[in-house]
Each structure stands twice: as structure tokens, then as C-alpha cells.
Amino acid sequence: MPSSLLSVGLRCRCPRCGQGALFKGFMRVVDRCPDCGLDVAAADSGDGPAVFLIFILGFTLVPAALIFALKVDWPLWVLLLLWGPIIIGATLGLMRPAKALTIAAQYRYRRDQFGGEDEGGEG
Ligand SMILES: [Zn+2]
């Protein structure tokens, strides 16, 4: 049964079956889904996930850090110690779901990239 884009993206699962793990290691995408055999390696998400995160985090965390810096009177090095780990942690924490979400969107809307598979999708 097909899963929603958001569900498979946040859980980092296979876009077709919603069960198989999409990653081996931190960011390396599996060649084939261990559950349904979907050729996941055929789809290349490229820089898409990084661009999403640049926009999302850039438009949320940078203003938050600037407003915070204006509200408190802390030295710059303290602000760097505070916001550095927050920004790096948010980026690394969201990279896998962003990549999984991009691959799920590719599977839904550009299914021809997955080894010529045609399962009667919406496209
Ligand atoms: Zn699968």
C-alpha cells in the first residue's frame, strides 16, 4: 500500500512500499529496497535536499539568531558557541528526512527515473 510522501520522508523509508530502510549508514542510499526491491539507486536527488535545507533553515534560523543577538548583550563568541551547534545539528538532523522526502517526491512525480518502473502512478 502506498504511503504518503511526508510519512516515508520523515521515516526515511522506501517510497514504494513504505517499509524498507532507505539509507545504509548516515546518508548513503541503498541500491535496492530490502523489502520490495525497488531500484532506489537509479534516482539521484542531487543537490535538492541541500537546497531545501538552505532555504528552510536560512529563513528560520538566521533571523532567529539575529533577533536573539539583538535581545541579549552577550559576546560574539558566546553567540557562536550557542548558535553553531544549533545550526549544525539542525542541518545534519534534517538532511536524511529531506533526502528521503526528495526521493519520495521523485518516485511519485518522476517515476520513469526508477529503472523505467511504471506502476500506474498519477503521472
Ligand atoms: Zn520498498
Automatic annotation (TrEMBL):
Gene Ontology cellular component annotations, sorted alphabetically: plasma membrane
Membrane spanning stretches: 50-70, 76-95
Keyword Heme among record annotations: no
Lineage of producing organism: Bacteria, Pseudomonadati, Pseudomonadota, Alphaproteobacteria, Rhodospirillales
InterPro entries (alphabetical): ABC1_TM_sf, DUF983
Predominant cellular place of this UniProt entry's protein: membrane
Localization annotation: Cell membrane
Organism: Niveispirillum lacus
GO molecular function, one term: ATP binding
Protein topology in the membrane: Multi-pass membrane protein
Alphabetic keyword roster: Membrane, Transmembrane, Transmembrane helix
Protein known as: DUF983 domain-containing protein
Domain of life (superkingdom): Bacteria
